[in-house]
Specification:
The complex is a heterodimer of chains A (824) and B (136). Chain A is an alpha+beta fold and 824 residues long. Among the domains of chain A are: 197 residues; 192 residues, no CATH class; 117 residues, Tick-borne Encephalitis virus Glycoprotein, domain 1, CATH 2.60.98. Chain A is built from 23 helices and 24 strands. In chain A, helix 2 packs antiparallel against helix 5, helix 12 runs antiparallel to helix 13 and helix 17 packs parallel to helix 19. In chain B, a hairpin with a 4-residue loop joins strand 3 and strand 4. Classes of the chains: A alpha+beta (824), B alpha/beta (136).
Chain lengths: 824, 136
């Protein structure tokens, strides 16, 4: 029996737990009912049951979501999920995204989208409903097991989002509860707040990127289900056309999701780029590449009847790879090869089983039906579109194969007991190998446009291909020359040729399409978008330049000199000390703090030869001193049409994680130690005092009536020295005070923190008619400074605009294929 | 021979080339001792020796960071990283270095660190609650 714990709200958890079981049960019920509906087409009652199961499943998945939402929104930190992923301070839109911050939430998201897709298919699939939904409901049931979190035969199945904090963690043995059952009984009184989200994820992209990505993953099941249904029901030829719009949809959404991730990384993470070939990024692009290949051979098959087996295998493989990718990223096997913090939530073998179930179904069905599959005995024509589309699809698969081989290195190690490590310079390795495939693929997306299905006149084909190729090369030369891409390796320049060629060739198709053959527009637009993505990625990644190069020749330690030719990408900037960086004059001018964010104001100026400021802007890169996660930086970027200037803080002495260590309670003597040896000046009104960062003028001396909170009596004498302090074009007024009380002299120093100086009115020298002002300067090292990294990314807008164009292109294709489906 | 068969052979050849290139590009995990015996780069896994000093003084050199790490076999070595100090370095519980030995120092060109993440269950914030309790 549960001991009653004070303040716990158990109802939403019980309800949510009930829904997780119901979701699993109803999905399984739907799968079984649809299975019998597919095998007994005459008995419609099975189908009805299947529908009931599907709807119930959707209802219970929404139920899980609502309960989890309730828990998070009401800050019920007795639930582990709320405690781990949210906090009271989170604004509402981040509370939404804290929902899918954890494994369970993202599984739910997947489950939700797959449920929505099932409901759409119930309406749309018609004669395909029973077999297709059998497969999807099965997938839905398997996914639902991930959320169940019940113990069966001593093993925990899945990981429930409704686990209580005290169940997830051994609270009882926490120091404050040992031997104090009463306190443990009131444990909630000690849990004041949740962990909150990783500040890096507190970004509006976190709100939109995961739902998009998971919609993409979820929709990958549809073409797979159609392929299985086609094999199962022996409707070998029909499934391809029916599945094509869904495959295009999955390709569009997943592609968008991936690029959103890239954009997010570029905008707000500080790794300095849009793509880092991290295994987690690879895991999302692996199934996408296969799907793109699959879509192309589907179209080949639809138009010519060729490549049926390739089509089937690729469609089946694309979904199995989604599951494999989810195993890679969620099982914790990537361990120390990925920066993404995925740890094993105890789902390792569960995830393996997920992959194996669907792999086995696909393989067994394929083997059983192998002999009956439609095969073409006729060899494809060399000068035919279908042959080269097929070649292109295979090259996409090879590119994917490479990604799988490298990202799975920890898996190979686990299977074969080897100790391989990823390449020491993975980015370079990936770039070179993937670029080689990209050259082939871009060229193919170009010249295939000049080929027709079945057979093409070879002479005509060669002429138009060569003409466009020559034009592409002619355009490439000035492009790489002016962007600086010319210094890149040959293979990258070849991509440039290929991408420009592809844009031209597809541009021609687009123009033809606008003249009347409008149905061809979709692929042309999508290919142009793809070409632009390649151009943008190539120029921005290839010619991005770190402009925060420290080539002052100063500040070199001995050890640095020994290690020659290392990149010096980080620039130290003292506050208010301008530094020349590329064409910019950069100054760290100040901070603006709105907890927990700390924005560093970095002032950029471009000054022309005559000293006129031609451009002036301030970037505010942010760093958060998060007591739980440490210092977390996110960049700020100045966007131009053709380049971006990206700035982020890598270090600073002006921000501390332990905010409690503020220098209160220090005595004056202690404070003086923070400064260099004081310099006394004997001055009269109007005199100037110089210090390193500027100067001060004694403007007047006068009696002061009040000094801080000390009440002055008639017997006290207090004189203030008004100083006008000028430092870095800024003026400050300070008034240090000299006071005599009962024959003792006191003085009250005044600081100008921005200038790093302190003034003391240390003596009155009546004989000389002067006063003594002592100037304290902060040593160079105690001044506030930042270490900053700035990178210039040229032409990245091609990448983003290319993506939008590609999405539009795929959308047009979806409309076209959908229409064809209705006509047939 | 059919054209597709020829193409199939080409594909197999490329696939083999990919595997070979990955294998030859791949590095190995090792200890500092292994690093001393080789000139090639390798990965060393270990943890930060928090009792020894971390040297990073941006005012002297914003691109020099050194610290002491113990590898998984317990051997300790001074590590030099040319770059700024990774944020949150002190909190790391596991470090993966990529680099090579230069003399008695390990020169890392890449540091990957695992911090106690909030995904870890034992990290719940009892301590914070406790300090609040004390102040009441």
């Amino acid at each position: 029996m549960d001991t009653a714990f004070k303040g716990e709200h158990l109802l939403p958890g019980h309800l949510g737990q009930f829904f997780t079981i119901l979701a699993f049960g109803s999905a399984l019920f739907a799968a079984i009912s649809y299975y019998f509906a597919a095998t007994n087409p005459t008995d419609t009652s099975w189908k009805r049951l299947g529908r009931i199961g599907t709807i119930t499943n959707m209802f219970s998945v929404i139920g899980i979501g609502t309960c989890l939402y309730y828990v998070i929104l009401n800050h019920l930190f007795e639930y582990n999920y709320a405690s781990e992923h949210s906090s009271r301070a989170l604004p509402i839109h981040f509370i939404i995204s804290s929902f899918w911050d954890g494994q369970e939430g993202s599984f739910w998201l997947w489950n939700f989208w797959q449920g929505v897709i099932s409901c759409v298919l119930v309406r749309k699939a018609k004669s395909w409903e029973a077999p297709v939904l059998t497969v999807i409901a099965l997938s839905q049931a398997v996914l639902a097991t991930m959320l169940i979190g019940v113990d069966i035969f001593g093993a925990r199945i899945g990981s429930s989002p409704f686990i209580l904090l005290r169940e997830a963690i051994d609270l009882k043995s926490a120091p404050i509860f040992i031997g104090n059952p009463e306190a443990y009984h009131h444990y909630l009184a000690y849990i004041k707040d949740g962990n909150g989200m990783n500040p890096l994820l507190e970004n509006y992209w976190m709100v939109i990127h995961p739902p998009t990505l998971f919609l993409g993953f979820a929709s990958m099941v549809v073409p797979f289900a159609y392929a299985i249904a086609g094999l199962w029901q022996k409707r070998y030829k029909e499934w391809v056309s029916a599945a094509l719009p869904y495959a295009l949809f999955a390709m569009m959404i997943l592609g968008t999701g991936i690029i959103m991730g890239a954009f997010w990384a570029y905008e707000s993470l500080s790794f300095g780029g849009f793509w880092a070939w991290d295994p987690v990024e690879n895991a999302s692009i692996i199934p996408w590449l296969i799907l793109v290949g699959a879509v192309h051979v589907m179209i080949v098959y639809k138009n010519t009847g060729h490549s049926y087996i390739t089509t089937t295998i690729l469609v089946l493989a694309s979904f199995v790879l989604v599951l494999y990718a989810s195993f890679l990223t969620r099982s914790g096997i990537l361990g120390d090869t990925s920066v993404h913090a995925f740890t094993d939530a105890g789902l390792f073998w569960h995830l393996v089983a997920d992959v194996v179930i669907f792999l086995v179904i696909a393989v067994v069905l394929l083997v059983i039906r192998w002999k009956e599959l439609p095969k073409t005995t006729k060899d494809e024509e060399t000068y035919s579109r279908e042959f080269w589309m097929f070649v292109g699809a295979i090259f996409l698969c090879l590119s994917c194969f490479h990604l799988v081989v490298v990202s799975s290195i920890p898996v190979w190690n686990a299977i074969f007991g080897t100790k391989l490590a990823p390449p020491t310079d993975p980015v370079k390795h990936y770039n070179i190998v993937q670029a080689s495939f990209a050259v082939v693929v871009t060229l193919l997306t170009g010249f295939t446009q000049f080929l027709k299905y079945k057979k093409t006149d070879s002479v005509k084909f060669f002429i138009s291909t060569l003409v466009y190729l020559v034009i592409a090369v002619l355009i490439t030369i000035p492009v790489i020359y002016f962007t600086g891409a010319i210094k890149l390796q040959f293979v990258f320049i070849m991509i440039m040729v290929g991408a420009i060629y592809s844009i031209l060739a597809n541009g021609k198709v687009l123009i033809d399409a606008l003249k009347g053959k409008f149905k061809l527009a979709g692929s042309a637009v999508a290919h142009i978008g793809f070409g632009l993505i390649m151009v943008g990625a190539l120029i921005s990644a290839g010619t991005s330049e770190i402009i925060s190069v420290n080539n002052t020749g100063e500040q070199f330690t001995e050890e640095f000199v020994r290690a020659k030719n290392n990149p010096r990408e980080n620039l130290l900037m003292y506050k208010n000390t301008p530094i020349k960086m590329g064409k910019y004059t950069v100054t760290y001018v100040g901070d603006s703090v709105s907890a927990p964010d700390h924005f560093f104001k970095v002032d950029y100026k471009v000054v022309d030869a005559s000293g006129k400021v031609t451009e002036h802007f301030i970037l505010k890169p942010n760093a958060q001193a998060n007591p739980k996660m440490g210092l977390i930086a996110s960049p700020d970027t100045k966007h131009y049409l053709f380049s971006d200037l990206y700035t982020h803080i890598t270090w600073s002495n002006n921000i501390s994680v332990d905010d409690a260590s503020a220098a209160d309670g220090h005595t004056e003597a202690d404070d003086d130690k923070k400064y260099e040896a004081p310099i006394p000046y004997e001055v009269k009104v109007g005199d100037t005092l110089h210090f390193r960062e500027g100067y001060a003028i004694l403007t007047s001396l006068g009696k002061v009536d009040k000094v801080q909170d000390i009440a002055l009596t008639d017997k006290d004498v207090a004189i203030g020295a008004k100083l006008k302090v000028v430092s870095h074009d800024k003026t400050y007024e300070v008034e240090p005070v000299y006071m005599i009380r009962s024959n003792n002299a006191f003085d009250f120093a005044r600081k100008v923190d921005d200038a790093g100086v302190k003034f003391r009115f240390s003596q009155v020298l009546p004989k000389k008619g002067k006063v003594e002002i002592t100037v304290f300067q902060q040593p160079e090292s105690a001044k506030k400074w930042i270490v900053m990294r700035a990178i210039q990314f040229p032409d990245i807008n091609f990448l983003w605009s290319g993506t939008i164009i590609m999405v539009i292109g795929i959308l047009l294709s979806i409309f076209r294929r959908n229409k064809e489906l209705k006509v047939n | 021979m059919k054209k597709t068969s020829i193409f199939g052979l080409v594909v197999i050849a490329i696939a083999i080339a990919v595997i070979i290139s990955v294998y030859s590009n791949s590095s190995t995990y090792g200890s500092f001792k292994d690093a001393q015996n080789t000139t090639s780069e390798l990965h060393v896994v270990g943890h930060l020796n928090k009792s020894k000093q971390l040297i990073y003084d941006a005012t002297k050199d914003a691109n020099y960071f050194s610290f002491y790490m113990k590898d998984n076999k317990g051997q300790e070595c001074k590590v030099v990283f040319i770059g700024s100090k990774p944020q949150d370095f002190e909190r790391s519980e596991q470090i993966v270095l990529t680099g090579q030995m230069k003399g008695s120092e390990f020169h890392a060109n890449h540091i990957l660190m695992k911090c106690p993440s909030k995904y870890k269950n034992d990290q719940v914030d009892i301590t914070e609650a406790k300090s609040k309790q004390a102040s009441i």
